[in-house]
Amino acid sequence: MKAGGWALCLLLAAGAVAAASPDEEARDLMRAAQGDLAVGRNADAVHKLERALVARPGEPLAADVQASLGSAYLATGRTADAERSLTSAIERARKANRQQTVVAALNDLGNLRAAQGRFAEAQSRYRDAMEAAAAAGNKPLGARASTNLARALVDDGRSAEAIGMLPKLAAELRTLPVSPDKAYGLVSVGRLYARLGDGVRSAAVLRDALEASDAANDARARSAALGYLGELYGEARRSSDALQLMQRAIASAEQADAPELLYRWQWDKARLLRTQGEADEAILAYQHAVQTFTSVRADLAASPARGSFRESVGPLFAELADLLLEQSGRLSDAKVAASYLAGARSTMEAFKGAELQDYFQDDCVAALRARTTGIDQLAPQTAALYPIILKDRLELLLTLPDGMKRFTTRVDANTLTREIRSFRLLLEKRTTHQYYPHARQLYDWLIRPIAAELERQRVDTLVIVPDGALRTIPLAALHDGQQFLVARYALATTPGLTLTDPRPLARQQVKLLLNGLSDGVQGFPPLPYVAQELEAIHALYGGRVLRDGDFTVTNMERDLEQTPYSIVHIASHGQFAGEVDKTFVLTYEDRLSMSKLEQFLGLSKFRTEPVELLTLSACETAAGDDRAALGLAGIAIKAGARSALATLWTVNDPASALLVSDFYRALRDPAISKARALQQAQLAALKDPRYRHPNYWSGFLLIGNWL
Question: In the chain, where are the structural domains located?
Answer without folding.
Answer: 180-272, 277-360, 365-494, 512-704
